[in-house]
């Protein structure tokens, strides 16, 4: 995870001069994060629990290798956000729905929720006919939770000095948007129909970025999407006997990864436009999850123990 994050940031950061906190002049005091299951440290499970429900990642074997219990993370151990917090010397970021009081959030707040979409679920269904399973926990809903928490957060932790709090905080906006596409592809929408969602999804991310900047954020990580063509459920969803549908270096679906590259390219273009509108002391960093993770798919043996479960690749 540390390798992925370092590679992703170093290859894709903005050209602006980092603020003192980012440059090492002072440490970040908090992390505020938004996104989906890639970043969720327990919110989805807390939401389900209150409704008398559960999900696989609320149970073992999730969490078994590090926490030795399920924490609501979609991992057997830690997530990227956990490694960031540990590197910065900040307590692991608490999920918004898991905190008992504002004092629990002195190291920041995680608003990310598994299954979250960038676009509101009712908009997705009305505009594109995409059905979203579960509660609407979109990016806009997460921002609503953040807005409501700000007064008490600033009052209790920073003597009402929100500007100081946010200037010393790291904001992580995403990864988000992958579920919008996953739901659409799972519903049987065509590639063209899913591509039409990309400007809307990226627009939602940029709108959220503008809002947190307006609120005072100056150090912001904005990750792109992963190579979704390597996801097992999509490989299973779109079987093919045509070897040309797959990248020979990874076995991943080429057309899906090309679609993700379109999303990431558009996101980076919009981030460049935002940077031009703001002073040099603002640090907006695009995190290249796509190419960082692709390195692992291309050469898994270089990143740990590996035994190929399919020694003879069959495209069926």
Automatic annotation (TrEMBL):
Gene3D superfamilies: SGNH hydrolase. The keyword Nucleus does not apply. One of its GO terms (molecular function) is hydrolase activity, acting on ester bonds. InterPro entries: GDSL, SGNH_hydro_sf, SGNH_plant_lipase-like. Transmembrane segments: none annotated. Keywords: Glycoprotein, Hydrolase, Signal. Belongs to the 'GDSL' lipolytic enzyme family. PANTHER family: OS05G0506800 PROTEIN, ZINC FINGER FYVE DOMAIN CONTAINING PROTEIN. This is GDSL esterase/lipase.
């Amino acid at each position: 995870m540390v390798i992925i994050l370092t590679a992703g940031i170093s290859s894709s950061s903005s050209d602006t001069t980092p603020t003192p906190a980012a440059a090492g002049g002072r440490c970040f005091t908090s992390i505020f994060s938004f996104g989906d299951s890639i970043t969720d440290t327990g919110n989805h499970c807390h939401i389900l629990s209150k409704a008398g429900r559960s999900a696989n990642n609320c149970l073992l074997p999730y969490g078994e290798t590090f926490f030795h219990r399920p924490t609501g993370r979609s991992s057997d151990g830690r997530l990227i956000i956990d490694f960031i917090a540990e590197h910065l010397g900040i307590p692991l970021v608490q999920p918004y729905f898991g905190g008992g009081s504002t004092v629990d959030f002195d190291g920041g707040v995680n608003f990310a929720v598994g299954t979250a979409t960038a676009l509101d679920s009712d908009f997705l269904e009305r505009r594109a006919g995409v059905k979203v399973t579960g509660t609407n926990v979109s990016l806009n809903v997460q921002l609503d939770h953040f807005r409501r928490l700000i007064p008490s957060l600033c009052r209790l932790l920073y003597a009402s000095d929100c500007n100081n709090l946010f200037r010393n905080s790291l904001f992580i906006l995403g990864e988000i948007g992958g579920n919008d596409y996953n739901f659409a592809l799972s519903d049987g929408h065509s590639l063209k129909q899913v591509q039409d969602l990309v400007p809307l999804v990226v627009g939602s991310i940029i709108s959220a970025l503008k809002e947190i900047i307006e609120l005072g954020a100056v150090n912001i990580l904005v990750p792109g999407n992963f190579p979704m063509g390597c996801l097992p459920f999509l490989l299973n969803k779109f079987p093919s006997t045509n070897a040309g549908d797959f990248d020979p270096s990874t076995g991943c679906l080429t057309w899906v990864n090309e679609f993700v590259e379109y999303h990431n390219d558009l996101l980076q273009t919009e981030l460049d436009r935002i940077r031009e509108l703001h002073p040099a002391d603002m640090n907006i960093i695009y995190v290249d999850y796509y190419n960082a993770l692709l390195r692992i798919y291309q050469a898994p043996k270089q990143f740990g123990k590996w035994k190929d479960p399919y020694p003879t690749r069959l495209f069926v």
